[in-house]
Specification:
Blueprint lengths: L5 E4 L6 E4 L10 H44 L14 E5 L10 E5 L18 E5 L13 E5 L5 H13 L6 E5 L10 H16 L5 E4 L8 H20 L3 E3 L1 H5 L15 H16 L3
Parallel strand pairs: 5-6, 5-7, 7-8, 8-9
Antiparallel strand pairs: 1-2, 3-4
Length: about 290
């Protein structure tokens, strides 16, 4: 005996539809399923791009070292310029001229957000680092660096902090936003260990460390449940270990207008609210 059609609501876009059967996790329309699939694919591509960019940085550093060695061996008469972080000095040779002069050309890698970070006074500077949730975060607090790493998980945040640690960078405060991509792995205990390691490294670079809690994604019930569980654990763990915690869950809960159509990333209004939450913690006295 076949089931009769019923009117159901999509758990992602909240639009009504007609369906014969509804699974335990609720009904998701075909358009939202395709959007979810494409969003996850984009996230994976962003992670691969980030890995390629890091490989490109290593190649660029090697080329710079080889070029510097070549300049010394050939006794180049071009006056040396003060070393500037994020810039590579190249030599331009003019064709058809025997007595050509070397002209330094400044180039930069626009895919390297960390290498372009300014060297502010450690007493005044602060760092906000996170995944694509922080893409449109704007902080008016002076000397604040916002580093967005699309598709990043906790180990990716740790890897980028290591780059800064090797450069002996220190910050007055560090805010870390991570977790949205980690819950997709369905390995909560491993995620907790990775977050603890990120915090341990950040604590060597700043006396004040905050964790920015996840946003209540408007996706499947499983994703929402995992993010809620991570938010609850993170808030308690931060309190027990004297780590600051920014509870974004309460601010965003029940406000679908604060998220984009993908149900994960904050809208312009959501980005403004997230920026306000982060700025409030940056202004707070330790």
């Amino acid at each position: 005996m076949s089931s009769s059609p019923v009117i159901v609501t999509c758990t992602a876009c909240y639009m009504f539809s007609i369906s014969i059967s509804v699974g335990e996790q609720g009904f998701t329309c075909d358009k939202c399923k395709e959007l979810i699939r494409l969003t996850e694919k984009i996230s994976d591509l962003e992670t691969r791009i980030q890995a390629l960019c890091e490989s490109s940085e290593n190649v660029t550093a090697l080329d710079t070292a080889l070029d510097a060695t070549s300049l010394v061996n050939t006794h180049c008469l071009v006056p040396a310029e003060p070393a500037q972080q994020g810039w590579v000095t190249m030599r331009k040779h003019s064709r058809g001229s025997k007595n050509h002069s070397s002209v330094p050309i400044r180039t930069s890698n626009r895919f390297s957000p960390l290498s372009d970070a300014p060297t502010e006074d450690p007493v005044e500077s602060a760092l906000v680092i996170g995944d694509s949730i922080t893409r449109n975060v704007k902080i008016e607090t002076p000397a604040t660096i916002v580093t967005c790493l699309p598709g990043a998980r906790a180990p990716d945040i740790k890897a980028n902090l290591k780059v800064l640690a090797k450069a002996n960078r220190k910050f007055s405060k560090i805010i870390i936003h991570v977790g949205t991509n980690d819950v997709r792995l369905r390995q909560s205990e491993i995620t907790k260990i990775n977050i603890k390691e990120v915090c341990k490294l950040a604590s060597t670079m700043s006396k004040v460390v905050y964790f920015s809690g996840p946003l209540p994604a408007k996706r499947s019930d499983e994703i929402v449940s995992r993010l809620s569980s991570l938010n609850g654990w993170l808030s308690k763990w931060c309190l027990q270990n004297n780590i600051g915690f920014i509870d974004n869950w309460k601010s965003f809960w029940g406000r679908p207008d604060l998220l984009k159509m993908d149900g994960i990333h904050p809208s312009w209004a959501g980005a403004a609210l997230l920026s306000s939450n982060l700025a409030h913690s940056l202004r707070a006295k330790p």
